[in-house]
Design a protein that fits this description.
Layout: H1 18-35, H2 44-64, E1 88-94, H3 97-105, E2 110-118, H4 127-130, E3 138-145, H5 152-163, E4 171-172, E5 175-176, E6 182-186, H6 189-204, E7 215-218, E8 222-224, H7 232-235, H8 240-256, H9 268-272
Length: 276
């Protein structure tokens, strides 16, 4: 849930189910009006409210907009390409998980990207609770990748360059709160070393106009988010928040990392489908 009380509709995650509930309520009321003309209900206020919400979301998106991409050097320290098979995993937090997931779904070498929560306990890994900012969780994405096609260091380069702005403390774009913080959750000592060294490298090179505030911490556990959050950008490409905050990130991935861009995204839906 966003920290900005004036606009819950323009912020990440606040609308996935609420808009559906509003639509269902409007449809039910409309049907009741047709069945009972004396009901006194008019659909006009609902339509006006929906239009007002959409326009307000549009204004917020234009005001805050997407974070600009920054061309940065690759990490000097990276994990070597493995000689055998096997997938690896990276868990990253950087604001709304809708956009983070979309970026990695379009990244070659990534086999799955799941929106979820990391940093807190399992029993508080639910959107309404995480939205309070008091659970320790951050909206995160679990990125499963083939290290023979893309390295952990390249995953981090994309993370810092196009997926989010690592200089914003406890916020990204229109979203405020510790649940939107920038954090790399490492799974082992190698990931910790690479992430820590890369942040130092980028700060030393003044790659950004401000210091990087990304935290590097151990992964206590990753908990997938609710189904309605998965593949959100793929399923709702015209949603105002996606249009103005997240779609440009995917375009920046295509522009700055053309060799690692894939047009067709890998989705949670496809990954969870039973094989034929």
């Amino acid at each position: 849930m966003p920290k900005n009380p004036s606009d819950r509709y323009a912020a990440c995650g606040a609308t996935g189910m609420e808009d559906k509930a509003m639509e269902d309520k409007a449809m039910t009321s409309s049907m009741a009006t047709r069945q009972n003309p004396r009901h006194g209900f008019s659909l006009r206020p609902v339509v006006q409210a929906v239009l007002a919400v959409s326009l307000f979301a549009l204004a917020i998106g234009l005001a805050h907009g997407e974070e600009p991409a920054v061309a940065i050097p690759a990490p000097a320290l990276d994990s070597p390409a493995p000689s055998g098979d096997g997938l690896q995993n990276a868990v990253l937090a950087g604001g709304c998980f809708w956009g983070m997931q979309a970026v990695y779904q379009h990244t070659k070498g990534v086999t799955n990207a799941v929106s979820g929560y990391a940093g807190g306990q399992k029993d508080t890994a639910h959107y309404p609770m995480v939205g309070t900012g008091r659970t320790g969780h951050a909206e995160s994405v679990s990125v499963t990748f083939d290290p023979r096609q893309i390295s952990y260091g390249k995953i981090l380069q994309i993370y810092f360059s196009v997926a989010h702005n690592p200089t914003e403390l406890n916020r990204q774009g229109p979203d405020f709160g510790t649940q939107y913080r920038s954090e790399i959750f490492y799974a082992n000592a190698e990931q910790k070393e690479i992430a820590t060294a890369y942040i130092a490298q980028l700060d030393k090179a003044h790659a950004f106009d401000r210091a990087i505030v990304t935290q590097v911490g151990p992964l206590p556990g990753f908990y997938p988010a609710e189904d309605y959050h998965q593949d959100f950008a793929v399923l709702h490409p015209n949603y105002p928040y996606i249009v103005y905050n997240d779609a440009p990130k995917v375009e920046n991935l295509k522009r700055l990392f053309a060799d690692f861009y894939r047009e067709t995204p890998v989705t949670v839906m496809a990954s969870s489908r039973p094989s034929q």
